[in-house]
Amino acid sequence: MSHTFAALVQRVTAQLSTSPRTVTADEYRTISCNRCGVCCEDIPAPYTPADLASRLSDPELNADWRAFLGGLEPVEERTNGWRYRCRHFQRDEDGLGTCGIFERRPAVCRGYPYGGVVRRWAQCAWFVQIVDENGNAISRLPEADAGWDTGVRLS
Questions:
Q1: Which of 22, 39, 94, 133 is most buried, judged by most C-beta within 10 A?
Q2: Is residue 2 included in any domain, yes or no?
Q3: 70, 76, 78, 5: which is closest to 41 by C-alpha?
Q4: Residue 92's domain spans which residues?
Q5: Could you tell me if residue 153 is inside a domain?
């Protein structure tokens, strides 16, 4: 079995067999990154590498997105786009993710996951279900809607 297919099976199995833990909005706000690194290694985008190069040459592109997109390297083509990884991402001796430009990382990275839940990767610390004061599930913190928004979406 190919490494790519095995990795896909592992990701899907983890997502299907793992239910997110339930947290309140206050508990969500205390979550910190567990350095699993999947958000840096598995970046989906509908753009080809040529499309990204074209976007980078656009003088209207803001500096933050220029830094983020300029750090992407293509990993593989997918049915609905490409998978990229960040060229600044590394793993330490314990296998935990580290950012080679942590102090200078783009706001796109600093704001992750933007007050929302992560459903793509069960190993992420933000693979949770947020509930409001009445126990109703919400997908993101209300204050997140007024915060981060660059107007650009990768997927």
A1: 39
A2: no
A3: 76
A4: 17-146
A5: no
